[in-house]
Amino acid sequence: MGENDIGRLRSTVHRPLDEKLQEALRQATTGAGATGNAAIINRMLDAALLLNTMERGPGVSAAPSDGPRDAGEFWWKGTRYEIPPTPWKLLAFVWQQENRRASFADVAEQVWGDDTKHRRNIDRHLSTINNALMATGISLHAKNETVSIDLP
């Protein structure tokens, strides 16, 4: 359970009626027992998101914003897609870059810690990402020693 998840939960739980949930979160994320509470925190986050969705009414999503989230997760228009770890690192890195473009050397350094990775490795992971995100219309391309993301 990362800081982003805890922050999401804290920002989701905002009503006075949620004081008990906030206190449970404080207890779960502090002290010696904090490391064993990931499942509890996940259930609390699910409950808080459901509560917010119910309050907003039908048709209004409380899903995270579009893009890479926790390791292995990519959200697009309210739908969660699973991406294997190494392709996810590549996608998350390029997603955060200006114009969603990055050089092969920067990608290799960020993903593998080595800027000498061959294009074959990058192409293989781009294929994995493109297959996972096919339904979204998002695609990643490698051209002129650059990786870029094309959005629909």
- CATH fold label of the largest domain: Arc Repressor Mutant, subunit A
Which structural class best describes the helix and strand composition? alpha+beta
Described by the principal axes of the CA atoms, the overall outline is elongated
Number of domains: 2
Name the CATH class of the largest domain.
Mainly Alpha
**Are there runs of 5+ residues with pLDDT below 50, and where?**
13-17, 58-62
**What fraction strand?**
15-25%
Mind explaining what this structure looks like?
The chain has two domains: 3-56, no CATH class; 67-150, Arc Repressor Mutant, subunit A, CATH 1.10.10.10. The protein has 152 residues and is α+β, with helices and mostly antiparallel strands. A hairpin with a 4-residue loop joins strand 1 (67-68) and strand 2. Strands 1-2-3 form a three-stranded antiparallel beta sheet. The chain has helices at 3-12, 19-29, 38-56, 85-96, 104-112, 119-132, and strands at 67-68, 73-76, 79-82, 101-103, 139-143, 146-150.
